[in-house]
Design brief:
Number of helices: 2
Distance between the termini: 42 Å
Order of helices and strands: EEEEHEHEEEEE
Helix content: under 10%
Number of domains: 2
Largest sheet: 5 strands, antiparallel
Strand content: 25-35%
Radius of gyration: 25 Å
Structural class: mainly beta
Length: about 170
């Protein structure tokens, strides 16, 4: 690695354990760095495995203590000009595809049920608790059920939502 020596693991980089030649060689791929909310201590999150491939990769979080024990950056350098452009993800199309798989308009939504909103207001696409309400639109058939979507604390977030814009949530 060229340039200044980093002071901690960096996301997108791969490291080899360099502190103890008698220990089992390990490789760590750093995917993210976060900071403890109270102590502000950095934590590198990623995957670690034996360098010889003898064990499967497993998720881990390493702290400054681990960093101080010695890790060498072994990330292969790549020519940025030769790097392929990542494909852009059409989030709306991907979301519509997922919703289409789970859309069940014949299944009733019960008051207090957890639902996924997938309506036109993209910024509100999330999980909510559904409550039944009367339609706020004049001339709408009184048999048409509309919903108020509430946050976890019961605060209404969206009102007058159609059944077609929500799907019962499935949590695995």
């Amino acid at each position: 690695m060229t340039g200044p020596t980093p002071s901690f693991f960096e996301p997108g980089r791969t490291y080899a354990r360099a502190d103890d030649p008698t220990a089992v060689p390990q490789v760590f791929r750093c995917d993210q760095v976060s900071y403890h909310p109270v102590t502000d201590e950095p934590h590198a999150h990623g995957f670690i495995a034996q360098a010889d491939g003898g064990a499967a990769w497993r998720h881990t979080s390493l702290t400054a203590f681990a960093w101080d024990r010695g890790w060498e950056d072994i990330t292969p350098e790549q020519d940025d000009a030769a790097a392929p452009e990542p494909e852009a993800l059409d989030q709306d199309a991907a979301f519509a595809g997922i919703v289409g798989q789970f859309q069940e308009t014949e299944v009733p939504i019960w008051p207090g049920e957890l639902v996924m909103y997938h309506g036109e207001q993209v910024q509100y696409r999330a999980l909510y608790f559904a409550e039944v309400c009367r339609s706020e639109e004049e001339g709408r058939d009184q048999d048409t059920v509309r919903y108020v979507l509430c946050a976890q604390d019961g605060t209404p977030v969206l009102g007058n939502v159609s059944r077609e814009a929500i799907t019962p949530a499935r949590i695995a």
